[in-house]
Amino acid sequence: MAIFSVYAVNKSGGFIYQYDNYVHRAEAEKTFRYPLDCVLKIHDEKVVVSFGQRDGIRVGNALLSINGLDVNGKFTADGKEIIEYLKDSTNYPLSILFGRARLSSNEKLMPASMFHSLFAIGSQLSPEVGSTGIEMLETDMFKRHCFQTLTGIKLIVLTDPRQSGIDELLRKIYEIYSDFALKNPFYSLAMPIRPPPQCRCWASPCS
Amino acid sequence: MTVHNLYIFDRNGSCLHYGEWNRKKQAGISKEEEFKLMYGMLFSIRSFCSKMSPLDMKDGFLTFQTSKYKLHYYETATGIKIIMNTDLGVPNAKDILHQIYSTVSMGLYVEYIVKNPLCVLGEQLSSDLFSTRLDLYIRALPFFSPRAA
């Protein structure tokens, strides 16, 4: 799927809408014997690999499940601390799934609001007169397009780098936003948009 | 099509070199503050890209563009960062920045260190030879055209 996510940020930097369409997150499951050969550490309430990259398990990958049971932050599904559990040799051999950590909505909120400030700094550091903020940011894995409306709402779309036609998509999303969110008499401006479950209009331009 | 300016930072954030060719608008703050702001912005963009990325990234952040300029970014394994602001007509300049690093920068960087054993790494490169060579290289680029002032 070429479009990964759609976000909307209001003019004070608050998150008002998100839609994610990730298909495949890189994950690797392996069976381990005692002692474990990667070094793990606790980071942000999750257990991540800090050393010992090999075979699809990369530094920064989080521990997602042990023996098929999803872990709960620092604790296993049974409530035991993971680091202590892994030090005990009687629990081995066991199979552990490592992968990119799925971001909670709080964790998505921080980068989205950070982007709001970076957008303004981009326009301040401009060597040319009359520049807007960052409209498109490119990496080797994704492209991030940002459309700022006249009222200060930023519509952000994360896509595959080869995807084209995003300007039209952003205009269409703006049209849908003004038709369904702004014309809704129960919607307060700059508040998070929660479409009712029956409403699939937001999702359709992305498919 | 033109190049506006170029920054070179080391891994601690101190600016090693800054060159300007066609800059129309100054940032309104002192040069030191501008370097710090630029470095801070790029540091935040990099960490932000690694969090947002749906798959593990190989090279990381490459460029960003606004309505008036495009910023190209290149980072080496030792933490040296080269940033070039150009106008929108320039396609991906990663190879050019790599060339700047390997032939102009490394060539002269090594010479500079060898010839001056007392010079401190992390201070601004004050070698005239370096500035001239870099200036000539940028002017020779196919997309550089000096605008009438």
From TrEMBL, chain A:
Main location, first listed in the record: endoplasmic reticulum
Assigned keywords, A-Z: Endoplasmic reticulum, ER-Golgi transport, Golgi apparatus, Transport
Record's subcellular location: Endoplasmic reticulum; Golgi apparatus, cis-Golgi network
InterPro entries tied to this protein: TRAPPC
GO cellular component: endoplasmic reticulum; Golgi apparatus; TRAPP complex
Described purpose of this protein according to its UniProt entry: Core component of the TRAPP complexes which has a function of guanine nucleotide exchange factor activity for Rab1 GTPase. Plays a role in vesicular transport from endoplasmic reticulum to Golgi and autophagy. May play a role in dendrite postsynaptic membrane trafficking.
Family in the record: Belongs to the TRAPP small subunits family.
Matches recorded under PANTHER family: TRAFFICKING PROTEIN PARTICLE COMPLEX SUBUNIT, TRAFFICKING PROTEIN PARTICLE COMPLEX SUBUNIT 4
Designated name of the protein: Trafficking protein particle complex subunit
Naturally occurring in which organism (per UniProt): Oncorhynchus tshawytscha
Gene label: TRAPPC4
UniProtKB/TrEMBL annotation, chain B:
Gene Ontology CC annotation, any one: endoplasmic reticulum
Entry annotated with the keyword ATP-binding: no
InterPro entries: Longin-like_dom_sf, TRAPPC
Pfam families linked: Sybindin
GO biological process: endoplasmic reticulum to Golgi vesicle-mediated transport
Record keyword Transport present: yes
Domain of life: Eukaryota
Keywords: Endoplasmic reticulum, ER-Golgi transport, Golgi apparatus, Transport
Location(s) in or outside the cell: Endoplasmic reticulum; Golgi apparatus, cis-Golgi network
Family: Belongs to the TRAPP small subunits family. BET5 subfamily.
Quaternary state and interactors: Part of the multisubunit transport protein particle (TRAPP) complex. The heterodimer TRAPPC6B-TRAPPC3 interacts with TRAPPC1 likely providing a core for TRAPP complex formation.
Function comment: May play a role in vesicular transport from endoplasmic reticulum to Golgi.
Name of protein: Trafficking protein particle complex subunit
Species assigned in the record: Oncorhynchus tshawytscha
Lineage, top ranks: Eukaryota, Metazoa, Chordata, Craniata, Vertebrata
